[in-house]
């Protein structure tokens, strides 16, 4: 396990994902691929049908002596041959002759790894469905919750928290769409043999590969070259982009949960300890884990791109790296998604503090609104100049924005004091935020249901 863990890891529901991330599952996947290969070869009369049946029957993890296999690995100096010897040993003498017939190690190992990842991918979709449901709830509940919009780390113009959540929803759905598209190219069977050109079987080799793909519910690689790695790199990049969306949420929660801002807080369970020395500490544990694991995940596509350029028809240094990197990407993404689900489910939103912060600048955040209203009478450029002068003066001299505006003859002649007060109310200038929040909440629920039903969202 190469993800970054802490005490939160043990308390989270893992949706059954971690059960796929161990050695036993890797060996089981090898057996599933070998069994599918034997079945395909038997049906195509490449090996005796009886031998194919016996290999399928023997290809069970309980039939493999893992201890003997590991001891043999030390002597043989090969990571896969000892496994094959144990599978041959589990078969009867005649059937054992046809184990791993006409293929190479990488065919089985890569196909098996992608088989496991495809199963994890289906679990990821359920986690993502739950996250979208959580965010839909957040967007709906806070569609009208006024807060400061921020750009460049400072107040911009007012928004609603529901609108902010709608941005997250849209970004996540785009990432889900991307993952679905990428998965068509990623989860493929490779049975091309030593160099990928079906030398052992000729034309019937492609039929073998297609049948194996059918049995494993995977795609069939158009050119089963061991040197092609772009499909794995693309999937890891798609995971990185998905994680970036959750990284954004985590950074926002991390910073706006500061006491000085106080707009949100991670869910808290009584008894949780934040510090060994400071009893008052309630730390953003979910957010920090998303941030740290995301940052590590981003480094992996670069490793893939560097290794993808290795020459010739096969290179073990490339296999070593890609096997490890894909495994690591899955572990990191798992930690990110599980934390994101709990974070979005239990997030506490302090609506009163958000509104208080929106009033912090006493109407200054609505300067654009005043300018646009004044522009209807004076034109945009002149209106901008007038409001700009007043806004900067207020900030430099710590004056009241309303009174500064009413000191200007153009503004005073254009608006009553009541109209100016209304324009400076943050609630009066949130644009289409409420509607967008509701639109994206509805969209999130639609995609949530599609994910639960196994449908592909495009």
Task: Explain what you see.
- The structure is a single chain.
- Strands 1-2 form a two-stranded antiparallel sheet.
- The chain folds into 2 domains: 7-355 and 437-452, Fumarase/aspartase (Central domain) (Fumarase C, Chain A, domain 2), CATH 1.20.200.10; 364-424.
- Helix content is 64%, strand content 5%.
- The model has no long low-confidence stretch (mean pLDDT 93).
- The chain has helices at 7-11, 23-43, 49-58, 66-76, 81-90, 93-96, 105-141, 161-186, 204-216, 230-256, 285-297, 300-308, 316-346, 351-358, 367-378, 380-397, 401-406, 409-414, 417-423, 433-452, and strands at residues 146-151, 154-160, 188-189, 219-220, 264-265, 348-349.
- The chain is built from 20 helices and 6 strands.
- It is mainly alpha-helical and 458 residues long.
- The two termini are 33 Å apart.
- Helix 2 packs antiparallel against helix 3 (49-58), helix 10 (230-256) packs parallel to helix 13 and helix 15 runs antiparallel to helix 16.
**SS strand fraction:** under 5%
Physical arrangement of strands within the biggest beta sheet:
1-2
Radius of gyration based on Cα positions:
29 Å
Write the element-wise H/E pattern from the N-terminal end onward: HHHHHHHEEHEHEHEHHHEHHHHHHH
For the record, the count of structural domains works out to 2
Question: Which regions have little confidence, pLDDT < 50, spanning 5+ residues?
Answer: none
End-to-end C-alpha gap: 33 Å
Please tell me the CATH architecture of the largest domain by its name.
Up-down Bundle
Do you know the CATH topology of the largest domain?
Fumarase C, Chain A, domain 2
Which percent range fits the helix content?
55-70%
Global geometry? elongated
What's the main sheet like? 2 strands, antiparallel
